[in-house]
């Protein structure tokens, strides 16, 4: 198990998972007073919760958590567990003798691996929120538990993926971090090298996504989606958070191909705690790079599960030759 640590002030991350059913949930908690937030959805098959209220013209100005879940649409149930946890902590907008936390979320499709009946529920969401800290596992944990990539030839030729994290801190005190659960239809690449993607019939080599796209392929609708969250201590408005989310999607394109297909529901949230003045373009650029590195981290930290090999397996085989 590999761990990462976030240094973005005020934000914590928690995970819970079913390692037999191969599904899980990741919760990114904002500071108790909430954070400005925005979202950008590029894929054509998204599954989301409370994204409309993130539009700049909507009344709510702050949210208290972002939930990233496996389980396809079933996984949205986990968000209610996070709400219950936050309400018990007194986080949210006061309404009489209770508080109402604002929890946004997105799901990915992992029903093709493990048990198709396993999905994050209220209890799993509550548990993940209760475990949130500045240190958390990556790879096949949380929303990355059932994630896979390289499905242009179908799941039988896919590779195991997971969740990853990357961040940047500048001398002036600005921090930008990104958490990604990578469940892409396409392959993951760095420079001229494919790290994980569609495998040949004997799993011995990659079939490039470019080659597959040029020849045509069977469409596997809705079995993918990479979802993530950018967190920063910059002072941003809701509109600026949305702009940062849009720039962050360029990190997808620099690590996944093809990207934002009709078979993906790619979604990026941005939460900003408002502690440090920083140019929006600087935050956006750091978010783009953090997303790219988090995607690579997700693949490199994954392990073989559900009958599908991971990057680490191929790396081991190459080292043995």
UniProtKB/TrEMBL annotation:
Family statement: Belongs to the peptidase S58 family.
Protein name (record): Peptidase S58 family protein
Cited SUPFAM superfamilies: DmpA/ArgJ-like
UniProt-listed InterPro entries: ArgJ-like_dom_sf (IPR016117), Peptidase_S58_DmpA (IPR005321)
GO terms of molecular function: aminopeptidase activity
Gene3D superfamilies referenced in this protein's UniProt entry, alphabetically: L-amino peptidase D-ALA esterase/amidase (3.60.70.12)
UniProt source species: Dialister succinatiphilus YIT 11850
CDD domains: nylC_like
């Amino acid at each position: 198990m590999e761990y990462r640590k976030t240094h973005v002030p005020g934000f914590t991350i928690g995970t819970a998972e079913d390692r037999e059913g191969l599904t899980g949930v990741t919760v990114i908690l904002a500071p108790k007073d909430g954070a400005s937030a925005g979202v950008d959805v590029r894929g054509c098959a998204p599954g989301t919760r409370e994204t409309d209220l993130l539009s700049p013209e909507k009344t709510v100005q702050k949210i208290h958590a972002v939930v990233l879940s496996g389980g396809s649409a079933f996984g949205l149930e986990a968000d209610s567990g996070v709400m219950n946890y936050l309400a018990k902590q007194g986080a949210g907008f006061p309404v009489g003798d209770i508080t109402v936390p604002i929890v946004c979320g997105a799901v990915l499709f992992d029903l093709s691996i493990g048990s198709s009946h396993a999905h994050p529920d209220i209890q799993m969401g509550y548990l993940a929120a209760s475990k949130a800290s500045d240190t958390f596992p990556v790879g096949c944990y949380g929303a990355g538990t059932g994630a896979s990539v390289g499905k242009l030839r179908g799941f039988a030729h896919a590779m195991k993926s997971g969740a990853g994290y990357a961040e940047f801190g500048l001398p002036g005190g600005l921090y930008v971090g990104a958490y990604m659960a990578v469940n892409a239809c396409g392959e993951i690449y760095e420079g001229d090298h494919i790290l994980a993607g569609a495998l040949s019939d004997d799993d011995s080599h990659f079939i490039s996504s470019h080659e597959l796209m040029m020849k045509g392929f069977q469409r596997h609708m809705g079995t993918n989606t990479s979802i993530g969250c950018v967190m920063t201590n910059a002072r941003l408005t809701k509109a600026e958070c949305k702009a940062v989310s849009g720039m962050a999607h360029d990190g997808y394109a620099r690590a996944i191909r093809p990207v934002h297909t009709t078979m993906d529901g790619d979604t990026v949230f941005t939460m900003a705690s408002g502690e440090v003045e920083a140019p929006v373009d600087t935050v956006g650029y750091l978010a783009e790079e953090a997303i790219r590195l988090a995607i690579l981290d997700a693949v490199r930290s994954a392990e073989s599960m559900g009958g599908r090999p991971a990057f680490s397996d191929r790396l081991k085989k190459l080292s043995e030759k």
